[in-house]
């Protein structure tokens, strides 16, 4: 019977060895466990291990820039500007299941990137495939693929995630200036995902300034139309975490020489 169980577990691709089966039987007999308790002892640990490996794989695939989570976020610093209940609700991923978008607007340093990453990590734990990138990095990869003829493959890559986080839109000036088609390439990714999967964008550019920033009013209108379509709009007006952490340089005075 033990051999038949091991063979069945192998067929089901459940990674339980003969030694682990014996240990589970011994523990169950010692404690007088019920059949359900024995079954959990046998497969529960293996299932949890597999789940943890899957989460770790999705987090690695997402390429988050930090190790930040919502659990270690400093909620007190900008308590008046950031509604924790709203962020926790976003972290449930209901908006991703509805294929909605998310736009997080605010000046640099108010915590947009950490919040987007924290939400993304939660969604990885919920089984969603997430990819984080900055607008500048995305543009650089798209323009490179345009040059070497692999743009279709790049577009396919960026459109198959459940959630694509495009951060730092508004800090990509250099990358856009290197290729006049950069803005249109970014639009291709947004358009390809529109209505099929969710996109979250972090930016410090107000919507009415996108045309001036991109230098192309029709492109800005088309981009806004697809980003804001069915989007959760979250504007953060708060203090800069980085500015608060900066230590003012102490003034130094040169000692006066004495004769």
Automatic annotation (TrEMBL):
GO biological process: DNA replication
Pfam families, per database record: IstB_IS21
Domain IstB-like ATP-binding, residue spans: 8-244
Record-linked InterPro entries: DNAC/IstB-like, IstB_ATP-bd, P-loop_NTPase
GO molecular function, one term: ATP binding
Superkingdom of this protein's organism: Bacteria
Protein name: Transposase
Organism: Planctomyces bekefii
């Amino acid at each position: 019977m033990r051999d038949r169980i091991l063979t069945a577990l192998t067929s089901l691709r459940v990674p339980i060895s003969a030694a682990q089966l014996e240990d589970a039987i011994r523990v169950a007999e010692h404690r007088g466990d019920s059949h359900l308790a024995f079954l959990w002892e046998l497969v529960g640990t293996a299932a949890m291990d597999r789940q943890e490996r899957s989460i770790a794989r999705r987090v690695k695939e997402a390429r988050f820039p930090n190790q930040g989570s919502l659990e270690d976020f400093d909620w007190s610093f900008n308590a008046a500007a950031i509604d924790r209940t709203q962020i926790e609700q976003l972290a449930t991923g209901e908006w991703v299941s509805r294929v909605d978008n998310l736009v997080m607007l605010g000046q640099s340093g108010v915590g947009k990137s950490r919040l987007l990453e924290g939400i993304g990590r939660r969604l990885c734990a919920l089984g969603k495939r997430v990819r984080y990138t900055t607008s500048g990095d995305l543009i650089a990869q798209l323009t490179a693929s345009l040059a070497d003829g692999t743009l279709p493959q790049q577009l396919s890559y960026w459109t198959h995630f459940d959630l694509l986080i495009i951060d730092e839109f508004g800090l990509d000036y250099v990358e856009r200036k290197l290729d006049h088609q950069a803005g249109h390439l970014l639009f291709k990714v947004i358009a390809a995902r529109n209505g099929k999967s969710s996109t979250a964008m972090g930016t410090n550019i107000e919507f009415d300034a996108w045309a001036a920033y991109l230098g192309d009013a029709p492109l800005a209108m088309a981009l806004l139309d697809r980003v804001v379509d069915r989007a959760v709009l979250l504007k953060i007006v708060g203090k800069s975490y980085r500015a608060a952490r900066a230590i003012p340089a102490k003034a130094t005075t040169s000692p006066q020489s004495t004769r």
